[in-house]
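A protein record in our archive is deliberately plain, so that people and models can read it alike. The tokens are whole numbers drawn from a learned vocabulary of local backbone shapes. For reference, a complete record is included directly beneath this paragraph.
>
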Amino acid sequence: MKPWEAWPTPLIAPRLPQGEPDGHGKVVSTTHRSLLEVDFVANRGYSRLYIQSALHIPDEAKMEQESASLRRIDDSFQKIIIVKDDIAPYQNNDGFLIVGLFDFLLNPSFIPSSFVLLLYRLE
């Protein structure tokens, strides 16, 4: 078993049509499912990185929407919200790093050192 296969990924709900039975015969209600998904989860060994992406975060309501799924995760791994806007990187009250897309892509210091090789090795 490879190290990254040891981590279960229960954070992303399967996309089932409204009212369709799941694998256990239960009918799934998808009313709140789509609001609480994490966009990306990267695993490397015993490290994990959560990334939420947003086109814009113009107000507090949108920030609440984007950070709700990350707040539900009860661990101490780094959580990053990437925004397309050109913003100054900052950390919010929940400890999430909010950073612009270009800063995230061009500055590897926003990514934990254990993931730098994983994200930038394209060979």
Summary: The first strand starts at residue 40 and ends at 44. The chain has a mean pLDDT of 75. The beta strands are 40-44, 47-54, 78-83, 90-91, 97-100. Residues 60-71 form the longest helix (12 residues).
